[in-house]
Amino acid sequence: MGKVIFVMVDALGFDTAGRRGGYLEHLTEYRLAAKYRVRGELPSASRPMYETLMTGLPVSVHGIVTNQTSRRSRCENLFSLCKKSGKVTAAAAFLWISELYNGTCPFSIYEHRIQNGGGDIDHGIFYSDCDYPDTHLYADGEYLRKTYDPDFLLIHPMHTDTVGHPFGCASKEYQESADQSLQQVAILLERWREAGYDVIVTADHGMDELGIHGGNERIQRQVPLYIISDRVKKGDFTDHEISNLELAPFVCKLIGIEPGAGMKQEIHIEMENK
């Protein structure tokens, strides 16, 4: 039985994470964290990959095929599976997460920003402006953690995606945004670990030089995965790729709940033999 904080940095590409995630790279280098190279499903777009990461299912199965597919999830997901097992869930995230897992379609900032009960996410703070500062978003997540002690907490900053679209992944704006977001993880990580959480840091998709994603380029699909957990074998495992379909069943394993129907049975993330 365990608790998990799942940080999904929107549009954080694998190469950028390696260049800008100084503290997470340090933990990997000193074998205090595990790092993996993740190949995302297609399309490499936000809302489809939110659903893939939370359900462990490909797009052709879960049906969230574009960013314009606005409806509640019809599949078992990490939030619903936790609730079925009597766990507490929370999210500090973009409005599409609220629409997917609490059914607030269409989302209204006046009605749905703060939520407590009524969906798969027990406690939520949601934003609708894509340039909502990541510092505020991490603070929202930390408030949810301290107030409700959730078993599964999603923290979803979007500023890196927001500046990536007009400036591209090679720009100072994109690189600096990724750096600032990952610095927030570094600031909060010790208190998360002291509170008993395993921590996952990953992304939904990457971003290309033109500020575009959604297609089949490596730079758009390949994202990092950092895991800080005493139950996971530590080190750099980026010599091969794993699928982002593995993340949802892996989180189920960490929390100690049954995975959803259709989730992958084979997971290539190495556990400690304890």
TrEMBL record:
Entry superkingdom: Bacteria
Listed InterPro entries: Alkaline_phosphatase_core_sf, Phosphodiest/P_Trfase
GO MF annotation list: hydrolase activity
Annotated Pfam families: Phosphodiest
Full protein name: Alkaline phosphatase family protein
